[in-house]
Design brief:
The complex is a heterotrimer of chains A (about 625), B (about 500) and C (about 100).
Chain A: H1 6-22, H2 28-55, E1 64-73, E2 78-85, H3 87-110, H4 117-136, H5 140-158, H6 165-196, H7 201-211, H8 217-233, H9 242-245, H10 251-260, H11 265-272, H12 274-278, H13 281-302, H14 308-328, H15 332-359, H16 377-390, H17 397-411, H18 417-442, H19 458-473, H20 478-485, H21 500-523, H22 525-534, H23 536-543, H24 548-594, H25 602-622
Antiparallel strand pairs in A: 1-2
Helix pairs in contact in A: 1-2, 1-4, 2-3, 2-4, 3-4, 3-10, 3-15, 3-19, 4-5, 5-6, 6-8, 8-11, 10-15, 11-14, 11-15, 13-14, 13-18, 14-15, 14-17, 14-18, 15-16, 15-17, 15-19, 15-20, 16-18, 16-19, 17-18, 18-21, 21-22
Chain B: H1 2-18, H2 24-48, E1 57-65, E2 70-76, H3 78-98, H4 105-124, H5 128-149, H6 154-187, H7 194-197, H8 204-221, H9 230-237, H10 240-265, H11 267-293, H12 298-317, H13 322-353, H14 369-382, H15 389-402, H16 410-437, H17 453-471, H18 474-488
Antiparallel strand pairs in B: 1-2
Chain C: H1 4-23, H2 27-52, H3 56-86
Helix pairs in contact in C: 1-2, 2-3
Chain lengths: ~625, ~500, ~100
């Protein structure tokens, strides 16, 4: 029904192939144009898909599978290369190609100085291709393929500046962590195949409710293994350490991959497998708990960092935590809605940060910024809008989505008071770190007088304005999104009851966070020092990211190498190989002993022969 | 057709060996011509193969030694055809890579051709004695190739390799004769024909020994952990063109032997030992990967990673179902392509920077963008990135292991071990790739150049295949699966014990 | 006349050859002793060939003579070479092939 959906995959792929092959030989303008145009056209095609879905009957919106060819056809295992066009995938595609297109355009300006301009766009196109594959996949296999390929794109782009050692290490870390997730998903796919005899969504999801009782061990295991992938990709505790390091990549990459799209794949996965997760309430509880914990921990770490991009990265982790909380309490479309609004304002924040970094010549330390409001008015204004949306300031997009999550975390079937309380606490932190960052960067006096900040070129500013517009007004789409996605989630449209007191509390807590940021960073330095001294141990802990990196290093990375060395030395050289050589040596030793008999004296041999002959004769004749 | 594929390289090799004083150009042309003909013929064979049934096709047969009824019988099914095509393909790469050999190139090429012919022969032989002859024919040139053109401790390595392999293959010879005797006792027909012999039901207690003998030979050849200790020495000492064949094609002969002999001949012993062999394979997967993580020498790193990847193949073979074995055959093809490409890259790097120690060079990307791109693709395929060919095989194998009837409870542990190794694979492969290609470019010789056309020609086919097989694995699997089914469901009709129902397979 | 006499004769020649081979140190003499042993066997073969009316024994005798001739050719050549290089012929001193 939607064969042209393939173009969404094909166009970015063509862009990737063209740019990686001919990128060096075409001018920057051409390379940039191709990079953007392929994504732009993909976005337009997505819009036609959306229109197609909207004019069709809601019941017919799900399950439109487009088969390209039979990818593997075995007796026991059949798999088509196919894509699935339904409200959820189209919704994700809108975000991916839409925000992706804006970020591509922004990159034209941001990367204009870079010598490897074409390579950047080819990787970006490759990312869009992989991400589209991830959301369009109609079965778990191609989901995993897309899943791993976005990981690869992320790896390539984090390590884009290959001459920087820190970038190379960060890229490797991200890749390896994501491979851990991939392995989890692959195992989940095996379990699904084992139980359902198929790994295509349609067959699995239709058969699941009849096959499993709620909280069966097997469904729990399946969902948990899928969750490993989701946690790794979406940087949830304990697989989160790669995300802050991933900020080594160029800023548009952070905006596109590590804020707006790829890291939300985990949320998408859980939403996509909602049928399975609804059968596993225990897993849902785990998701919600991890989500809310991540929201808190990431918020705490974000409150004390000084690298502008890392602060935003921690806030991304924290917001992803909210999305996990939403899907964990069973309101999938609310989680998806927050995914969308978050994509807008987080991309905006990153792009704004990029604009700042760009104008300050790659300076990322917020202690060296300040007073940028005047030279960069548009960046300032859009950054402010994004910050407000992030803190869920009333009437911004973030308000509608985050507030809904907080409300559902209490009122939903799976919600409870603890989730609500912790989510509120996280919201307070969000207000604090967002505005701390904002104040450091834009207000006060410039802390690096030698820099001459200037507003960025139009090609960078226009995407900022569009995203700012979306961050302000996308909130009104909440109802529509819930309705649109309902067919995928079993026709379930979540409605949180209005509770004025609780809503007021949520708003107040967010505002309190902002106010405390004002109190500490805008008005009084003394209070700041006071707080730092009083909470010194906690501050230290937060500044060092709870020492989780060091912990992993000590308990996983180091032992891995040590054991590897051990295997090589003790098991290989001194064990197996030594044993084999010993066999050879022993044989040689025994032959040396025996060879004494070969004296070289002919008469001695002859004597032996005759003696032997006589012996045999005696034996034959007399015995 | 199959005879031509085997004998054209063999005769070309013999000719080159005996004929002195040819110009180098002509020698290379002849070697190329022979291998390319073999490759083209193998492609024709693949295209003409009727993959709707899994019987042997292209069978040529005539009596070789009438007294013992030893025949010259060659034939191929979906499994062997792919391996033949792979071997011939790698032969082209090996010859291409051997072109720059300075020291006595004519003998070098001649020996490579003979080694190639032996390997091809192993894949098509349908007579146990003929199989054995090819099996040894493959070994002899290798001994000289490593011993005379190798590097480092080459004598030690080659002696170890040959002795190790001989121990296995001599036991196999015993087993070959023993099986024929059992068959003769049952039917009074003296034959060494594999297809006839597999119908023999062998008493369980004898199966144990025979299986052990065959398995040892093949386990050493693959190699399966813990029979692998010749491999690191040999691979490190081995010249690159030989290594391409050694890792890409010759290691597959072991796995092929397991499929062709062990599974159909000794179903009971196989089902008894699947768990243990599975443990060995899974152990090898983790062990190889773990050691690879600690390597600084890129050649050794790839060698150990080979042990890990070969473990997957063995695990799939002993999973006891279609998928696993089809996946294994696919993975053999994949590994042949990927590992040989990796070794070729190692050779190119060593040639340029003069060392294989990762600590002593880095940042080649700036000088070698072409190699960078190809190296990256091969690295990704080697670490099993979904979407490329390596993953398809691993996925099918592990899925089969997971649902395997014979591995049962242990399957879970084996898959987890394999999963651990996949994570390790990403660690060591990126470690090598990034360590060599990225970061700063200060430690490099001044006159370093990117790979030239000849070297591109070595890597581009591998790169194309890596992507192609990832997109269209059905091309391989469709042709392999019927043959696999045929192997797994061999009917036992001869010498049945009274209580058996006639089905030896599972 | 029975074959007993022939057997005795042959056995004595064979024993003389064997003992000679064991106690002499000159390779030439040892060679002759070997020939004695071979011809003792030939004697039996021919005799029994006649006795059993079968040509097999004669054929074997012929083969043995041929082999003996070949041996002598190679053996004498070796002995000659050894004598040339070492200027003596004592088998007890020729032991370079000891293990």
């Amino acid at each position: 029904m939607y064969p042209h959906a393939w173009l969404i995959l094909i166009l970015p792929m063509l862009g990737f192939i063209f740019l990686s092959w001919y990128g060096k030989r075409v001018s920057k303008t051409v390379a940039g144009f191709i990079g953007c145009a392929t994504i732009g056209v993909a976005f337009l095609i997505t819009l036609t898909l959306l229109a197609g879905l909207l004019i069709s009957d809601p019941a017919e919106r799900v399950g439109n599978v487009q088969v390209a060819y039979s990818w593997l056809n075995m007796q026991t295992f059949h798999l088509d290369l196919a894509i699935l066009v339904d409200p959820l995938s189209v919704f994700m595609l809108l975000v991916i190609t839409g925000v992706g297109f804006l970020i591509h355009v922004y990159s034209v300006g941001y990367m204009s100085e870079d010598p490897e301009y074409a390579r950047f766009f080819s990787y970006m196109n490759f990312f869009i291709f992989s991400m589209s594959l991830l959301v369009l996949a109609a079965d778990f296999f191609f989901l995993i393929v897309g899943w791993a390929m976005v990981g690869l794109a992320s790896y390539l782009l984090i390590g884009f500046w290959t001459h920087k050692t820190s970038a190379v290490l960060a890229a490797r870390k991200a890749f390896v962590m994501n491979v851990i997730g991939d392995v989890g998903m692959v195992i989940a796919a095996f379990m699904i195949y084992d139980h359902f005899g198929s790994i295509s969504y349609a067959e699995v999801f239709s058969a699941a409710p009849a096959k499993f009782m709620a909280n069966d061990v097997d469904i729990l295991l399946i969902t948990l293994f899928l969750l490993v992938g989701a946690f790794a990709k979406s940087a949830q505790i304990p697989l989160h350490t790669w995300l802050p390091d991933a900020m080594e990549g160029p800023t548009p990459v952070s905006a596109l991959i590590h804020a707006a799209t790829m890291v939300t794949a985990g949320v998408y996965l859980i939403a996509r497998c909602n049928v399975l997760y609804m059968l596993a309430p225990y897993t849902l509880f785990l998701i919600a708990s991890v989500g809310v914990l991540t929201a808190l921990f990431a918020g705490a770490m974000g409150m004390v960092q000084y690298d502008i991009k890392r602060v935003i990265a921690y806030s991304t982790m924290s917001q992803l935590g909210y999305m996990f909380l939403a899907v964990g309490v069973g309101v999938f479309s609310v989680g998806m809605f927050h995914l969308m609004t978050h994509a807008f304002f987080k991309a905006l924040l990153f792009l704004g940060a990029g604009s700042v970094i760009h104008s300050l010549h790659e300076e990322q330390d917020i202690r060296k910024m300040g007073g940028l409001a005047r030279p960069m008015p548009i960046t300032f204004a859009t950054f402010l809008i994004a910050s407000l949306a992030l803190t869920a300031f009333p009437l911004t997009a973030g308000f509608y989505s985050k507030d809904a999550i907080i409300m559902h975390s209490y009122f939903s079937e799976y919600g409870n008071f603890v989730f609500w309380g912790l989510a509120l606490l996280g919201a307070g932190m969000t207000g604090f770190y967002t505005f701390r960052l904002f104040f450091y960067t834009f207000l006060g006096k410039s802390r690096s007088p030698e820099a001459h900040p200037h507003e960025s070129p139009w090609v960078m500013v226009v995407p900022l304005m569009i995203l700012a517009f979306l961050s302000l007004f996308a909130g009104h789409l909440a109802g529509w999104v819930n309705e649109f996605l309902a067919p995928v989630f079993g026709g379930h449209v979540p409605h949180a009851p209005h509770d004025s007191i609780m809503e007021a509390t949520a708003i107040t807590v967010s505002l309190l966070g902002i106010v405390s940021a004002i109190g500490l960073y805008l008005t009084g330095k003394n209070q700041l020092e006071f707080v730092k001294t009083v909470g010194a141990p906690l501050y230290d802990l937060m500044l060092n990211k709870f020492y989780i990196d060091e912990l992993y290093n000590f308990f996983i990375t180091k032992p891995m190498r040590v054991i590897g060395k051990f295997f090589e030395q003790r098991a290989e050289r001194e064990g197996i190989d030594f044993a084999i050589d010993m066999v050879g040596d022993q044989v040689r030793e025994v032959s040396r002993q025996i060879s004494v008999l070969q004296s070289g004296k002919v008469r001695w041999y002859a004597f032996n022969t005759v003696a032997g002959l006589i012996l045999v004769l005696v034996f034959v004749i007399f015995l | 057709m199959l005879s031509l594929i085997v004998f054209i390289p063999l005769l070309a090799g013999l000719f080159l060996m005996l004929k002195r004083g040819l110009e180098l150009e002509k020698v290379i042309k002849l070697a190329y011509g022979a291998v390319a003909t073999a490759f083209v013929l193998s492609l024709f064979a693949l295209v003409g193969y009727d993959f709707h049934h899994g019987e042997m096709q292209y069978v040529d047969s005539f009596v070789w030694v009438p007294l013992l009824n030893i025949t010259y019988t060659v034939g191929a099914d979906g499994i062997s055809l792919w391996l033949v095509a792979l071997t011939a393909f790698l032969g082209i790469l090996a010859i291409n890579s051997a072109r720059t050999q300075k020291q006595n190139p004519q003998q070098f090429l001649a020996l490579i051709l003979m080694m190639l012919a032996g390997t091809l022969g192993v894949f098509v032989a349908l007579d146990t004695i003929l199989f054995y002859v090819f099996w040894e024919l493959m070994l002899v040139p290798t001994y000289f190739l490593i011993g005379m053109w190798g590097e480092g401790k080459r004598i030690y390595a080659t002696t170890k390799f040959v002795l190790y392999t001989l121990v296995g293959s001599l036991l196999m010879l015993v087993a070959i004769v023993w099986i024929t005797v059992i068959h003769y006792d049952a039917t009074q027909v003296l034959t060494f024909d594999i297809q006839t012999l597999v119908q023999t039901h062998i008493p369980s207690e004898v199966q144990l020994f025979l299986f052990g003998f065959f398995f040892l030979a093949f386990a050493i050849k693959v190699p399966i952990f813990p029979f692998h200790s010749w491999l690191p020495h040999t691979y490190v000492a081995c010249p690159i063109p030989v290594l391409v064949l050694l890792t890409g094609a010759m290691s597959k002969t072991g796995a092929y032997g397991l499929i062709r002999f062990c599974l159909p001949l000794f179903p009971e012993a196989v089902s008894d030992f699947s768990l243990i062999i599975g443990a060995m394979a899974a152990g090898g997967i983790v062990y190889g990967a773990w050691i690879a993580v600690a390597q600084r020498d890129i050649k050794a790193l790839v060698a150990y990673s080979s042990i890990s990847h070969l473990g997957f193949i063995v695990l799939g073979i002993f999973s006891g179902n279609n998928q696993g074995m089809s996946g294994s055959v696919l993975q053999m093809v994949n590994h042949g392509i990927i590992a040989s490409a990796l070794f070729l890259i190692v050779g190119m790097l060593e040639e340029r920077v003069g060392t294989r120690d990762l600590d002593r060079f880095c940042g080649l990307k700036g000088r070698m963008p072409m190699l960078y791109a190809m190296f990256m693709l091969i690295t990704l395929a080697a670490l099993g990135l979904p979407g490329l060919n390596g993953f398809v095989g691993e996925f099918l194998i592990l899925m089969a292991v997971w649902t395997s009837p014979v591995l049962g409870e242990m399957a879970f542990i084996y898959v987890l071990m394999a999963g651990l190794a996949i994570v390790f694979a990403s660690v060591y492969m990126l470690y090598m790739f990034q360590g060599a290609m990225q970061e700063s470019t200060i430690k490099l010789p001044k006159d370093m150049t990117d790979i030239d056309r000849r070297e591109q020609g070595l890597l581009i086919p591998a790169c194309i295949l890596v992507v192609f097989l990832g997109l269209f694995p059905a091309v391989v699997i469709d042709r392999v699966e019927p043959a696999v089914k045929h192997v797994l469901h061999t009917e036992k009709t001869v010498n049945l014990p009274a209580h058996s129902d006639g089905h030896g397979g599972h | 006349m029975g074959t007993t006499f022939i057997l005795f004769l042959s056995a004595s020649i064979f024993s003389i050859g064997a003992i000679g081979f064991l106690i002499r140190k000159n390779p030439l003499v040892m060679f002759m002793c070997v020939e004695l042993m071979l011809n003792a066997v030939n004697l039996v073969l021919v005799a029994y060939s006649k006795f059993l009316q079968s040509m097999d024994g004669q054929v074997f005798a012929l083969i043995i003579m041929t082999v003996a001739a070949a041996e002598v050719v190679v053996g004498l050549a070796i002995i000659l070479t050894i004598f040339r290089t070492r200027h003596e012929l004592n088998v007890d001193h020729i032991d370079v092939l000891k293990g």
